[in-house]
From TrEMBL:
This is Exopolysaccharide biosynthesis protein. It comes from Roseivivax isoporae LMG 25204. It holds the Pfam family ExoD. The keyword Transmembrane applies. Keywords: Membrane, Transmembrane, Transmembrane helix.
Length: 159
């Protein structure tokens, strides 16, 4: 999930959020359904990366991964069942990916940050990132709703 959310925070290419939100929706629906393994379409799951390219990716991403590992670690995880927490994360990520799918310029960063926080919470079982992810999701809903409302208000004033 983090892999598909990061481009929406750091890159602004018109239409890219539509492309990255579709795999996020698939992953979120799988979490929501309680699947224990990730299913990807054959076109994605059959792809591979050659060894030299993968080594280059690891070389450049390793410092970032090490920084993230210092920030996220197993702590303060709720006593509720893991399946219930996974489904809540899946629901929040589905809503955030639907917000990413909307073609609203400059509104992609906030939902993408919420997905990243929830992805960190899920991968490390970190309650702090879980809370940040849910708070970020609530803020993203308010933010995107305000942008839609502001745009509608501006259009209403023009016409």
């Amino acid at each position: 999930m983090i892999l598909f959310a990061v481009p929406n925070v750091f890159l602004y290419l018109p239409g890219s959020s539509v492309i990255t939100s579709l795999p996020l929706m698939v992953l979120a629906l799988q979490l929501l359904a309680g699947q224990s393994t990730v299913w990807l379409p054959r076109a994605l799951s059959d792809r591979s990366v050659d060894r030299a390219h993968f080594a280059r990716i690891v070389h450049y991403s390793l410092p970032w991964v090490e920084r993230i590992e210092r920030l996220a670690r197993p702590r303060f995880w709720p006593r509720a069942t893991t399946a219930m927490i996974d489904r809540l994360i899946g629901f929040a990520c589905l809503v955030m990916s639907l917000l990413l799918f909307l073609p609203i310029p400059f509104a992609n960063g906030v939902p993408a940050l919420a997905i990243i926080a929830l992805g960190l919470a899920l991968s490390e079982r970190d309650g702090i990132w879980l809370i940040l992810g849910f708070l970020g999701s609530a803020f993203a809903i308010i933010f995107v709703t305000a942008m839609i409302g502001g745009g509608a208000f501006a259009l209403a004033r023009i016409f």
